[in-house]
TrEMBL record:
The keyword Signal applies. The keyword Signal applies. Residues 1-25 form the signal peptide. Pfam families: PCuAC (PF04314). Keywords: Signal. It comes from the Bacteria. This is Copper chaperone PCu(A)C.
């Protein structure tokens, strides 16, 4: 297989041109689209956030965790439904995204679980959610809070 090796200058220019969301640390060529979440009833139950995470770079990226002031224990979860139709969810671990590929966090699948909420999630507000990548890179996205019954960002 032929390997393309970029010079430092060219790689830096491409990386710079790839940013379309604020990246605070590390060169992560990731774009987050259609982020949304649902309002919570109080703080006793966890919240969840959904989005599409797109790798716009030339290298694989690996999502390893989440950080937000809204929740003490934010974690990437995956909901699975077995043959009997029973759903359960568990920590999804690391999520690798190949160059040009995207991963959808959506109801019934992968999601950002926001455990131990520090304040209620109120419809009409937003909160910052930081995605943590394996190389120390971070991407922070402002997540809109939709109504309790919302099924997606276009509702
Ligand atoms: Cu969950």
């Amino acid at each position: 297989m032929k390997k393309i090796i970029m010079t430092g200058t060219l790689a830096a220019l491409l990386t710079f041109g790839g940013f379309s969301v604020p990246a605070l640390a590390g060169p992560v060529d990731v774009v987050v689209e259609s982020a949304w979440s649902r309002a919570s009833i109080g703080m006793n139950r966890p919240g969840a956030a959904y989005m599409t995470i797109r790798n716009t770079g030339d290298e694989p990226v690996t999502l390893i965790g989440l950080s937000t002031a809204l929740a003490m224990m934010p974690e990437i979860h995956e909901t699975k439904t077995n043959a009997e139709g029973v759903s359960s969810m568990s920590a999804a671990g690391e999520i690798a995204i190949a160059p040009g590929e995207s991963v959808a966090l959506e109801p019934g699948g992968l999601h950002a679980m926001l455990m131990r909420l520090q304040q209620p999630m109120t419809e009409g507000e937003t909160f910052p959610l930081t995605l943590l990548f394996v190389d120390g890179g971070e991407v922070t996205v402002e997540v809109p809070i939709l109504g309790i019954g919302a099924r997606g960002p276009e509702d």
